[in-house]
Every structure is written in structure tokens, then in C-alpha cells.
Amino acid sequence: MERRTFSPKKSEQNRQWFVVDAEGKTLGRLASVIAQTLRGKTKPSFAPHVDTGDFVVVVNAEKVVVTGKKETQKHYYRHSGYPGGFKAIPLRDVRARHPERIIESAVRGMLPRNVLGEQQLKKLKVYPGPRHPHAGQNPQELSVDVIERAGATRHAE
User: I want to staple 111 with a disulfide (CB 3.0 to 4.6 A). Which of 28, 61, 70, 117 is the partner?
Assistant: First the structure.
């Protein structure tokens, strides 16, 4: 019997839509589940060189939780390219102005740094409040509670 390596094709992808409520969820744990879904690692047809992932809609991004003193001590950095153009913006200021950027940045750091990672990031839709315009795609609830419970039991030991 001849065995061949299965390679998923772009035309054969069946993409689903998922919605996640970020209210009360820990940022890093939420971002890792979202990144795995965007990459397609939860599917049996996963291949690292093909975008097999699904779309993810995140609502209530402004209510995501960070642990410890990250609210005041975590900074987002950027540089304009000019002398003196370095900016360090604390997490609390980003949450006040653009809360969706907190989740986008965390997920971006967990995706590949190449063209494929950029494709996968375009399937992430983040909204600061509870409303989103993707009801027509009939998104399903993405379960993140298993990760939360595992983290809670680990800290209790």
C-alpha cells in the first residue's frame, strides 16, 4: 500500500466563524487560544505552511483582565524613526483610547512573523464593546473556560 503525505489545499478550506467574550478573561490565556484558532491548530487538517485557520470575533475587549501590576507597568513601544521619536505608552492609556489594540498586539506576538502570519491576523476582528457586525456569518461560541479553570487550579496548589 502506497502512503502519501496529506497536504491541505487552499481551495479545500472550510472556514468557520467564532465569537469570544473577553470579559473577565486573562489576556495571555485568551490570546493563546485565539492564536491557535487563527492558525488552524485545532483542526486535524493543520499544516504549518497553509492557512487552515478560522475567523475569530472578540467582543468586550475593554474588559479583558491582566494580572499583577501590568496595568501600570506594562508599556507598548514604538518609534517614529526620527531622533527623540521613541514612545512608551502604558497599558492603562491604551485601554482608555484603543482597547482592541491590547488583544491584537498579544495575538500578533503569538503568530508567525511572515506573510502567513499577516494573513492569519487579518481573520481576527476585535471590538471594544459587546456589539459586532458579523451576525450574518452566524459565529459560534469559542470555549476558553477550560484554560481559565486550569490556570485557577494550578495557582491554588
Answer: 117
- pLDDT tens digits, one per residue of 13-46: 899 999 999 999 999 999 999 999 999 999 998 9
Q: How far is CA 85 from the centre of its chain?
A: 29
DSSP string, 43-102: STT--TTS----EEEEE-GGG-B--TTHHHH-EEEEE-SSTT-EEEEEHHHHHHH-THHH
> What fold characterizes domain 16-67+98-156?
Ribosomal Protein L13p; Chain: A; (3.90.1180)
Rounded to whole angstroms, the Cα distance separating 141 from 116 reads: 25
Residue 129: φ, ψ to 5°: -105, -170
